[in-house]
Amino acid sequence: MAADVQLPPSNKQPPSYLDVYLRVLSALMLRDMRSRFGGNYWGYLVQVLWPCVHLAIIVGAMTFRGIKSPMGDDPMIFVASGALPALAFQYISRELMKGYLIHKPLTYFPQVKRFDTIIARALVEIVSSFMGVCLVCVVLLCFGVDPVPVDMVVSIGGYLTAIALGIGVGTVNVGICSVFPGWTIGYILVTLTLYLSSGVYFMACYMPDEIYYYMKWNPICQLIEWVRLGYDPTLPVQIDYLYLFGWVFGSLTVGLLMERYLVRAQQ
After folding, report:
1. pLDDT at 220
2. Which of 17, 156, 188, 194 is most deeply buried (CB count within 10 A of its CB)?
């Protein structure tokens, strides 16, 4: 009798490739958030709050030294419009490389590919960047400062391009550190030099023409001017959009080729 009993067929379908891929990405993103500053989600909050701390330090230094804003009447807008795109590029281009190194042991599992670690870290950094911008806007509103630019499309376009450039340069960094892990330290010096020379604390367009010519070769300098142009359309700046998009697509192409022929060769 027991041998004649037939169990009903199971209707449960195996998960599709897309379901498995989305679960892998979500797991990597959660691991990214928990791996920051102490291994819990409060550490992730520290990174989101850092742009506000950065803004407070620079504005406090300008106020203490009696330095007036070279753009408009409020130093908070001047600092925020320069620091936010520069930090967005710096964080994303650096954290993509760090995420690859942190998640490298997980790639021994067949479901986790090394390119998945890049995508997961990029998504986390994009969300973090926008959360930081929203938090800075709330802080500005609390101090009675209107954070809305005159031309919102221009400022948002410059900020999105900074994020895109960070992703492109970040993929190149992944390819470099897959062969030379010491690049994680060397790149800190590169980003520090770019940050200090990009015009966060000053207006590059007011420098002598001989200096300004060479400063415009720095794409971060032009991205900052792009964002600030949305706040003050009368600024004497000329953005070379073709040059900036060449940097974005060129770095992304080189990074993807390096991922294809260098990173995957390490597997």
Report:
1. 93
2. 194
